[in-house]
Specification:
Chain B: One of its GO terms (molecular function) is 4 iron, 4 sulfur cluster binding. Chain B: One of its GO terms (biological process) is respiratory electron transport chain. Chain B: InterPro entries: Mopterin_OxRdtase, Mopterin_OxRdtase_4Fe-4S_dom, MopterinOxRdtase_cofactor_BS, Prok_molybdopt-oxidoreductase. Chain B: Residues 8-64 form the 4Fe-4S Mo/W bis-MGD-type domain. Chain B: Pfam families: Molybdop_Fe4S4 (PF04879), Molybdopterin (PF00384). The complex is a heterodimer of chains A (534) and B (141). With 534 residues, chain A is α/β, with parallel strands linked by helices. Chain A folds into four domains: 5-176, 3-Layer(aba) Sandwich (Dimethylsulfoxide Reductase, domain 2); 178-218 and 287-377, Rossmann fold, CATH 3.40.50.740; 224-278, no CATH class; 413-533, Barwin-like endoglucanases, CATH 2.40.40.20. In chain A, 32% of the residues lie in helices and 16% in strands. Chain A is built from 21 helices and 20 strands. A six-stranded mixed sheet of chain A has the order 16-18-17-20-15-19. A five-stranded parallel sheet of chain A has the order 3-2-1-5-6, sandwiched between helices. In chain A, strands 9-10-11 form a three-stranded parallel sheet, with no helix packed on it. In chain A, a hairpin with a 3-residue loop joins strand 7 (194-195) and strand 8. By secondary structure, chain B is α+β, with helices and mostly antiparallel strands. Chain B has three domains: 8-61, Single Sheet (N-terminal domain of TfIIb), CATH 2.20.25; 66-101, no CATH class; 102-141, no CATH class. Chain B is 28% helix and 25% strand. The mean pLDDT of chain B is 95. Classes of the chains: A alpha/beta (534), B alpha+beta (141). The interface between A and B is large, with 143 and 98 residues.
Chain lengths: 534, 141
């Protein structure tokens, strides 16, 4: 997030797009509720009539995968209505004149033809956001899990740059990160393009710096993403080590994923349960869980916070860092044999410009948000206050593209996938927590009543849903949360493996899968083949 | 509940679910979690928790937890092994693959769920061990 969580209480106008925040980030959503109680206005763009949409002053029910068209249409109106912040544009951005040319044809009527949202509502949203003193944008995977995820984010940045909504309280472009330490994973250098602290690997100075620190010269070429690595399993990639990820259930195109992992000559999985992924491994190593571990998590507002061991692990389970270090030692690597997480974190801080000002002891209180560039620096709750890191904010000349697959006669419905409040990811944890499991014991397919009638489905009955990659059986729930023509399910239940269906395409830059769009066919069936077999 | 009695203790930590990073106190007794209390001074949550953070901790003590290393035997079954045997087997597999297919045949996937120390170790393992950037985390799916 560009701005801290506390800023969520401060905007005049909130624009949420592709975020089901009340379910996926419920505590953050309470901050928005405080802003609304104070009188802030909220615009929500989402294909589904989620709870956030019910709370909105203006709801834009966009067709799945049409976000860029909506955002271009809004930018057109902001320019046309003279709502652009000319001082901010003059002093802090570049490319405005080209953007104005680019937006010429992106009228709200054009956007309506793609998004399905009436032009008048697009104008209303643009004027509301564009007229605010403090406008804040919040998004989640509904923006990034598309083949055009990068353009979607760039289009959001255009809106904030046009209106000067950066670097001030209650503004910004704010992605809500999904996992407890997904931010920390990137910060720590677990990326094919960056060393720790987002230092590019293809910069020779960084290569030299890490050669000195690690005693080994690392390739100047970027590595490949996990998506590419899975594609190359058995043909280039022959060994993999996976820590704490149930790849088989969480990733798109399950059949492809299982085939990939089975093609390896050597697979090591570190986890707390024998997940569907661990079952495919040659070696499974038992890790400590969150309550049995000392270390640091980094949250969505870049805050570094200490996690502490409260109970002993079961049996012989050991911390992940220890396990990796012990494998390294047996391969003959030096410099990975630590006896506690403290020197590991301190090494990360020493090598990362964004963590330079802290160490294990200073991080104890959880008050630091990175960047913390030097000792004594207070941390940076709000980014871009005095300028952008790379000088001026660049406008992007984005355009709309169709999703990788679009609906047709054979696959006439859009499937969009997501999360539910009561489940977490592939349910390896929440599925083993009694109370919460009672709240949501099975997956359902959310279908608009008119689509149910059209395809012969009924509430509580069963459907077989197929895509170009596979089929799953799922119980039907008729609901007006789903718009006509679009159905919804989560990917959380291994018994209803929705990711058998997904995987139609990937963003060419980030390699993020288009998990939010998948054309499907549905038909009624007597009962789930899986249940019948049981 | 009185968290200060002699047989219970509280440990301040951070929720293990989403990226909001709510602070909470784990109340433990006899090496088991018995309750979660939201932290009113938690910067991200100011005393709030969701249904997952507040209640979904039973999995920590679930009988399905892995309690010892497993190694695939000649019949193709995963069977319990000592740490030493399992670590040796894990290491040898990477040595063999590197010898046969080269250093770009090994890939590491770090977790969005583990602490940063584990993520840092995973990327260091790949970079120091194989001199490549064949490392990613689970943020793309």
């Amino acid at each position: 997030m560009s701005n801290p969580l506390v800023d969520m209480e401060k905007p005049d106008v909130i624009f949420c797009i592709g975020t089901n925040m009340t379910e996926a980030h419920p505590v953050a959503a309470t901050r928005l509720k405080k802003a609304l109680a104070r009188g802030a206005k909220m615009i929500v763009a989402d294909p589904r009539r989620i709870r956030l949409a019910e709370m909105a002053d203006l709801y834009l029910p966009i067709r799945v995968g049409s976000d860029t068209a909506l955002l271009l249409g809004m930018a057109h109106v902001i320019v046309r209505e003279g709502l652009a912040d000319s001082e901010f544009i003059a002093t802090r951005t570049e490319g405005y004149d080209e953007l104005v040319d680019h937006l010429q044809e992106k009228t709200p009527q054009w956007a309506e033809s793609i998004t399905g949202v009436p032009a008048a509502k697009i104008e209303e949203a643009a004027i509301l956001y564009g007229s605010s003193d403090k406008g804040a944008i919040y998004y989640t995977l509904g923006i990034t899990e598309h083949i055009c995820g990068v353009e979607n984010v760039q289009s959001l940045c255009n809106l904030a740059l046009l209106t000067g909504n950066f670097g001030r309280e209650g503004t910004g472009v704010n992605p809500m990160r999904g996992q407890n330490n997904i931010q920390g994973a990137g910060d720590s250098g677990a990326l094919p393009n960056n060393y720790a602290g987002f230092q590019p690997v293809d910069d020779a100075a960084n290569q030299a710096k890490f050669e000195k620190a690690y005693g080994r010269r690392v390739d100047l070429e970027k590595g490949i993403t996990k998506v590419t690595a899975l594609d190359q399993c058995g043909d280039g990639i022959f060994a993999m080590i996976i820590d704490g990820e149930n790849t088989v259930v969480s990733d798109p195109d399950q059949e492809h994923c299982i085939h990939a992992l089975k093609s390896l000559e050597h697979l090591v999985v570190i986890d707390i349960f024998l997940t569907e992924t661990a079952e495919l491994a040659d070696v499974v190593l038992p890790a400590t869980s969150w309550a049995e571990t000392d270390g640091n998590f980094v949250n969505t507002e870049r805050r570094i916070q200490r996690v502490r061991k409260a109970v002993d692990p079961p049996g012989e389970a050991r911390p992940d860092w220890w396990i990796i270090g012990q494998i390294a030692k047996r391969i003959g690597m030096s410099g990975l044999d630590y006896d506690s997480p403290v020197p590991i974190f301190n090494e990360l801080c020493e090598l990362s410009p964004i963590y330079q000002g802290i160490d294990w002891d200073l991080a104890e209180g959880g008050q630091y948000q990175w960047p913390i560039p030097y000792r004594g620096h207070p941390g940076t709750p709000r980014l871009h206050e005095d300028g952008f890191i790379n000088g001026r904010g660049k406008f992007s000349f984005t355009d709309y593209r169709d999703p990788a697959e679009t609906i047709d006669e054979d696959y006439p419905l859009w499937l969009t996938t997501g999360r539910r409040l009561e489940s977490y990811h592939t349910r390896t944890q929440t599925g083993r927590s009694e109370g919460i499991n009672d709240l949501l014991p099975e997956e359902t397919l959310e279908v608009h009543p008119s689509d149910a009638a059209r395809f012969g489905l009924h509430d509580g009955g069963w459907a077989r849903m197929s895509s170009r990659r596979g089929a799953v059986d799922v119980r039907v729930e008729t609901t007006r949360r789903s718009p006509q023509g679009t159905v919804f399910a989560s990917f959380s239940f291994a018994e209803v493996p929705i990711n058998v269906l997904t995987g139609s395409g990937y963003d060419p830059i980030t390699h993020t899968a288009e998990l939010k769009v998948c054309p499907v066919h549905v038909e009624p069936i007597a009962e789930s083949a899986q249940l019948a077999a049981d | 509940m009185n968290a200060s009695t002699s047989d219970t203790k509280t440990t301040r930590t951070i929720c293990g679910y989403c990226g909001v990073g709510c602070s909470l106190d784990l109340v433990t007794r006899d090496n088991r979690i018995v309750a979660v209390q939201p932290a009113f001074d938690g910067p991200a949550n100011q005393g709030a928790l969701c249904v997952k953070g507040q209640f979904a901790y039973d999995y920590v003590h679930h009988p399905d937890r892995l309690t010892h290393p497993l190694v695939r035997n000649e019949e193709g079954q995963l069977q319990p092994a000592s740490w030493d045997e399992a670590l040796q087997r894990a290491a040898q597999g990477f040595i063999d693959v590197e010898q046969k297919h080269g250093r770009h045949a090994v890939y590491g996937v770090a977790s969005g769920r583990t602490p940063s120390e584990a993520n840092y170790m995973m990327q260091k393992f790949i970079r120091v061990g194989f001199g490549t950037n064949y490392i990613d985390n689970c943020s793309r799916a």
